[in-house]
Amino acid sequence: MIPYGRQWITDEDIDACRRVLRSDFLTQGPEVELFEGAVADHVGAPHAVAVNSATSALHIAYLALGLGPGDVLWTSPITFVATSNAALLTGASVDFVDINSKTHNMCVRALEKKLVQAEAVGRLPRIVAPVHLAGEPCDMAEIGRLSRRYGFRVVEDASHAVGAQQYGHHIGSCQYSDITIFSFHPVKIITTAEGGMALTRDAALAGKMRRLRSHGITRDPLEMVGPSDGPWYYQQQSLGLNYRMTDIQAALGRSQLKRIDDFLSRRHELAVVYDEAFKEFEHSYRSPDAYSALHLYILQWPSTSRLSRQQAFEALRAAGIGVNVHYIPVHTQPYYKNMGFQEEMFPTSMEYYRRAITLPLFPHLMRDEQKHVIDTVLQLTC
Ligand SMILES: *Cc1c(COP(=O)(O)O)cnc(C)c1O
């Protein structure tokens, strides 16, 4: 089966992990700090906090921004459940903003309309979490403008967008957001097996997130309330968790990061071949103002095809092509329906979902494998 996404591990990556295994630190230590510095430098953000997953990064980002009971967070229905689940874990409630039919990212017109209505009833969100679907950046300048007008904070879920750029800046530089989070899950752009990171320009937020990832504890005498008891002393100042990344993972991440430009250019080369083959169909939009990380190549299954999306999905799997669907709209999950969400509250997301199909795309996808995907799709759509 050709998977829809796959990591690329080299001997150099393995050597980097092996060196850590023979060193003094296995869990969070010098390698985590080096990896944080390397990612921060790459994207142009002053502060980076590495954690054990993007889900954890979202959770501490929301907590650091004060999200909690009585607050609301808004995101896109077309995302992985983690974006909204992490908000529910803080005790806040969530709501969704429908997607744009062309970009499949949160629609800024729908966002503005919903903000006007929310302001009128005094129920503005504390945080809006745009998701850069497939690695294509959301309209961040516009979301930034709305955040200043309506006073909400912005957390970019850039799980798909490590290495992406917009208006000449890397995603993660937080030009228009408070915090950006990355995922290093194996199918994403670079991997640490499990892992995530939160980036910010705000030193105080970074400090809060560092404490939250490790039990709310600080060992820095300068951050302490009152004098330190001595060199052994640590102080718990908030309620935190153990979300630490290991040094083994960080070493893998830093080794992978060295090849990110090659990973992205290979994804772009393959996507151009798909674009040409599928120029008759709707597929993942790419703005001329941005450089997508192209985490996913999503086709909208043509409604004129003799096969339904489901039949096509099954036929592609039977032909050894590991297609997938990103994503089942979060608000249609039973857990969310129990909160009162109904499918047709976000009609563009539903329309998108019913035809979405993700084709294999990863840096070492072979040309003959890609040709097999293209030939099979074209056969099934004719
Ligand atoms: C993968 C993903 C996450 C969660 O990432 P983990 O590192 O697996 O916790 C969150 N949001 C989106 C959009 C994702 O694709």
Structure description:
The chain is α/β, with parallel strands linked by helices and about 375 residues long. The protein is about 40% helix and about 15% strand. The chain contains 13 helices and 14 strands. The chain has helices at about 10-20, 30-45, 55-65, 80-90, 110-120, 140-150, 205-210, 245-255, 260-275, 310-320, 335, 345-355, 365-380; strands spanning about 45-50, 70-75, 95, 125-130, 155, 165, 170, 180-185, 195-200, 215-220, 235, 290, 295-300, 355-360. The strands form four sheets. Strands 1-9-8-5-4-2-3 form a seven-stranded mixed beta sheet, with helices on both faces. Helix 6 (about 140-150) links the parallel strand 4 and strand 5 (about 155). The longest helix has 18 residues, at about 260-275. The model has no long low-confidence stretch (mean pLDDT about 95). The chain binds pyridoxal-5'-phosphate (PLP). Pyridoxal-5'-phosphate binds near residues 54, 79, 159, 185 and 196.
Give the assembly state of these chains.
Answer: single chain
The strand count comes to 14
> Strands across the major sheet, in which order?
1-9-8-5-4-2-3
Q: Which outline best applies?
A: globular
Largest sheet: 7 strands, mixed
- DSSP helix count? 13
| SS-based class | alpha/beta
Helix share, percent: 25-40%
Query: What is the string of SSEs from the N terminus onward?
Result: HHEHEHEHEHEEEEEHEEHHEEHHHEH
Query: Residue-averaged pLDDT, rounded?
Result: 97
Distance between the termini: 23 Å
Question: What ligand species are in this complex?
Answer: pyridoxal-5'-phosphate
